[in-house]
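Title: Prediction job returns without error message
Component: structure pipeline
Severity: low
Priority: P3
Assignee: unassigned

Description:
Job completed but the reporter wants confirmation the result is attached to the right record. Sequence as submitted:
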Amino acid sequence: MKKKDESEADTGPIAAPVGAETFSARSRAFGRRVRNEFVVPFRRGTYAGTSTNAGQRRPLYARLLYGLSIPIVILWVLLACGLNAAGPQLEKVIEGHALSFLPDEASSVQALANMGKYFGNGGTNNFVAVLAEGDKPFGAEMHRYYADLMEKFKADNKHVITTIDLWSDPSFAPAFESRDRKASFSYLNLAGNMGTALAMESTQAVRDIVKAYPPPDGVKIYVTGPSAVVNDELLAINRSILPIIIACAICITIIMSLTYRSLFTASMPLLVVAVALVTARPIVALLGQHGIIGISIFASSLLAGIVLGAGTDYGIFLLGRYQEARRAGQDPTSAYYTALSSVQRIIFASGLTVAGATACMTLTRLAAFSTSGLPCTIGILTALAAALTLGPALLAIGCRLGLYEPRGDRAVRRWRRIATHVVRWPAPCSPAAWPCWRWQSWSCPPTSSATTNAPHNRPTPKQTWAWMPPIGTYPPTCSTRTCSSSNPTTTCATPPT
């Protein structure tokens, strides 16, 4: 009976597994570190100017960021949330304060303005074409509908300046209809220069009138032309900004997670750039709303791309230098001071260089670039401020919690061997890189010329003609008429033979 008890005692679950004890001990140690974070700002030794391992004195700037890391993170989060809650949204401000797409002093814009001055029109470069396409030749019913539609356009004096309706005139009607009499068009001169908020509002007003007044059966009405195409492009850019930001963030997260093999390590630069972008956008919107700076949809897209790219690089600089110091044998605190002291000048110089380059874009004449200069400069300066304050604060918290420790030296040894081989045998390594270059070039889709350059006797399936005859010309001889009815902005006209 005694032996049986001993055997049961040997096999019974008395002691916990070694792995469970290790995990429990690590959890308790991590909990103590987290609780210690709230005490660090109040310790006098945190701000002491003790010497580092290299015998250098720790700068006051780095000591303040190390001790006040949690308050700095809280201030940045409150600033970003407060600006987005109280300030205007950038997309809404762009819709109401977008500037002209083309420079007003351009010769083409001046020519249109002079035409409007001499012929009594508004003189804007905002022209759209109202295109009608039917299944059968147009008759009296279509002419009555078209006349009523033109009257509705003329009644909207706020958005429609002039209607150029020569299809209703029998003398000029052949020049504005197709050979089979199944398509016709007229021009409208709308308020606001192309790309401005008023121009986009005017184009949408014309489309609303067309939508509210349906055509006869078998007839479709399209609003197309240069200004309509530009407005659709700008709206598409505006809708794609958020998906682009999300896609870039996901790609950066995947690349950094594979590089550092730690989600915590990869999240540090992303948190810095996310807070910087969320803070910069309402600042740009507020300045643009009050007319201090010019803004456009291009400014919003370029702002997001530049801040994501530059801000992530600044975080990688700081994080990479910290891990290098840790691999060199320094303790986490000394590695933090080493990283910040050696990288802060590089980040500062790089940020000012990019900010100065983007500020020079304001000297250009094209509004797509001139309206993007100052918004991008504000975004870069915001990212620079976050990289020099929020980044070191997150690094200080992570180094005390042990979140940003290097995973090993295998990657370092692998890259060192590759560098050694390239330096030792540069001639054989150069041809070895040729297949990689060819694969990248093959992966890029080739560009093709415009479809209108294709031979007329062999039209491609997706070929769309965008030819429009000038006002007052005789109708051309036609052989075919194609259009893409799925795209409302496509000009469906009769191509020349």
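Comment from assignee: result matches the submitted record. The first strand starts at residue 127 and ends at 134.
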